[in-house]
Structure formats: C-alpha cells, structure tokens
Design goal:
Order of helices and strands: HHHHHHHHHHHHHHHHEEEHH
Number of helices: 18
Structural class: mainly alpha
Radius of gyration: 21 Å
Distance between the termini: 63 Å
Largest sheet: 3 strands, antiparallel
Helix content: over 70%
C-alpha cells in the first residue's frame, strides 16, 4: 500500500469511528493516530487526534483528555486552520474548560488564565457572550463560587444570540441541573429535567446522565417511589463497565438511604478502580463521599461485612466474608475529608466542606 492509499485508508477508518464511542474504538483510534503521525500528513494527524480526544471525552477519560489538549493549542500557533478545524478546536476546548476546576492541584490563577484563553478563542471565532456565561457558570460552580455561578447562569438565560459552538439544548439543560442541585432547589431539578427524561430533547449523553440527578432530587424530596424509578433507569442506561464516577455518586446517595448491599456492591465493584486511578480530586471527592455515606448507613443498620471485590488500594482488612463496613466507613471518610480540604484550599472558600457537612447530616 503506497502513502496515498495509507492516508485514504486512515481517513476511511476515522469516518467509521466518528460518533461511535467504545473502549474498543478508543484503542483503534489511538493506533490510527500513531499511523497518521508516521505519514507526516499534518491535517490527517489533526483529524485523528480530534477523534481520539472525542473518544476520551465521551468515555469519561478526562484525565487523559486534559493532558492531551495542549497539543491542539500548539498546533494552532504553528499552522493556519480552516473553518472546520478551527471550529473543531474551539469545540474541543469546551470539553476541557468544563472539567479544569476538578483538579485541585491546578492553581486558581492557571484556571482563570485558561478560561481567559478560552474566552478569547470563542470571541475570535465569532461566538457571542451566551456561551461564555454558560461555561463560566459551570467553572464557577466547580470552584465552589455558588453566587457567581448563579449570576452567570442568569445572564446566560437572558442572552438570546446562539452560536454553532453552543452545546446541544439537551446538554445545556442537563449541565445546569448541577447548579440547581447545589442550590438545593430539587423541585426545579425535576421540572427542568422533564423534557429530558421524556426524551423531548436528547443526545448521546442525555437523558442517561440526567437520570442519576433526578434520582437524587426525588430522594431529597422524600419521593422514594420516583427515586427508585429513576435509579432503575440510571443503572439500565449507564454502561457501568466504562468510567461513570461523575454520574453514579448520585446513585450511591440513594443506596446509602436504602441500605441495599447487593446493589451497592455492583456499582462500587465496577467503578472503584476508575475512581482510584483518576487524578480528578472533585470526581474522587464525590465518589468517595457517596461510598462513605453508604458504609456509614450500613454500620447504622448493623451490616458488618460487605463482600466487595478485593482491592489492595483499600487499606482495610479483608477475609472470605469481604470487608469490614466500619473500616470502609473510616477509610472513605478520611479520603473524602482530605480531598475536600485540597479543593477548598485551592478555591479559597469552604464550599466542599459545607457540601460534605450537609450530606453527612442528611444521611
């Protein structure tokens, strides 16, 4: 196969992968990136890397995606981009900016500088203020600045000018549910999610990532039957063999309230390794908090052991009957407190401490 045929073959395979996000396809695209590099065709390498970045994001491998993204900004500095590739780059930047506050080791100044760079790229592209206010609300919520996040949200809702950089309408509603949850406005979560769970608006991520949020909202309102309904939809629609720690922690709160060891075991066994390997302090904080509350309530309900899959990272005694729930409660509590301390110190507030205290008191 000559070089021209190789390039054509790689393009064909990339087009087959587009929109099909699986662990198998992620590995295939990674190999296609290596082959594209060998061809020394810059545009082909860009196409392959963009597809690999999409695989990482939609499969929730955000650690790798964030480490991967600077290549694109460097490429833009040294190469002229046409409309399609510039759109793809700025669109991909959204995936990074939405997650950057999750990493407690990234200083505030660096986050603010990166957001300013994102804002500059958005304006250079020609998009309006609406998209900037929308993403600013998400970032400020991640930094624990609830009032600022609310101000950005209100500005975003008032602005009418749309852009081809906007998230799909389903994702916009779904992402803003996190703010309503943070404000403890659970009725608004349910009302805003109505058109998502009915699938009036939907996409690859929605409503499957909406169901856990609605589960939590119904739970906090004491609507147990509805909470159970959306819990079942969550575990049915989410692929628990892939990283889902940003979604399942809401389900752990539900299981903590219900004290259901078998259902708890299924989620923790499938997701704990992903949490342990993650570099995201916020993701780990949320997942570990859910686990802590699960085992806290297991102890209250006199459940002594839980037969989780053995994991050496858990510094707890293990025998044929599983782990001691009291030790697991203590381990996850310590991890949760350590992570919230890291996040609050970076954010210069006490948002995550308050969040932890509220849920600890509630459950």
């Amino acid at each position: 196969m000559n070089l021209e045929e190789q390039i054509g073959s790689i393009y064909d395979q990339l087009y087959e992968m587009d929109g099909n996000y699986t662990l198998k396809n992620k590995d295939i695209v990674f190999n296609l990136v290596q082959k594209a590099i060998q061809t020394k065709d810059k545009e082909l390498e860009l196409e392959a890397r963009l597809e690999y970045l999409a695989q990482l994001v939609f499969l929730n491998f955000y650690d790798e995606a964030i480490a991967y993204f600077p290549w694109f900004l460097n490429y833009k500095k040294n190469n002229e981009l046409g409309y399609y590739h510039y759109h793809s780059l700025v669109w991909s930047f959204k995936w990074i900016i939405i997650r950057i506050a999750s990493y407690g080791k990234i200083p505030l100044k660096q986050i603010n500088d990166l957001f300013q760079q994102f804002e500059n790229e958005v304006k250079e592209y020609g998009a309006g203020e609406k998209i900037i206010e929308y993403f600013s609300s998400i970032v400020q919520l991640g930094l624990g600045n609830l009032d600022t996040a609310e101000e950005n949200y209100k500005k975003y809702k008032k602005l009418r000018k749309t852009s081809d950089l906007d998230d799909c309408y389903a994702c916009q509603i779904n992402n803003m549910l996190d703010l309503h949850i943070a404000k403890r406005d659970y009725k608004k979560v349910i009302s805003e999610a109505k058109d998502l769970v009915s699938e009036k608006y939907s996409c690859k991520s929605v409503p499957k990532t909406t169901y856990p949020k609605v589960t939590f909202a119904h739970l906090m309102l004491g609507q147990d039957l509805k909470a159970e309904e959306f819990y079942q939809l969550s575990v049915k629609k989410l692929n628990l063999d892939e990283p889902q720690i940003t979604n399942v922690y809401y389900l752990l709160f539900y299981l903590a309230k219900k004290n259901e060891p078998l259902k708890t075991k299924k989620i923790i066994d499938k997701q704990l390794d992903y949490a342990l390997k993650s570099n995201s302090d916020l993701d780990k904080f949320k997942f570990y908090l859910g686990c802590y509350l699960v085992f806290k309530n297991a102890v209250i309900n006199k459940t002594k052991k839980m037969k989780l899959k053995k994991n050496d990272a858990l510094n707890c005694s293990f025998d044929d009957n599983g782990y001691d729930c009291l030790e697991l409660e203590d381990w996850f509590k310590k991890q949760t407190i350590s992570l919230m301390t890291i996040l609050d110190a970076r954010n210069e507030n006490t948002y995550y401490t308050n969040y932890y205290t509220f849920l600890d008191d509630t459950f």
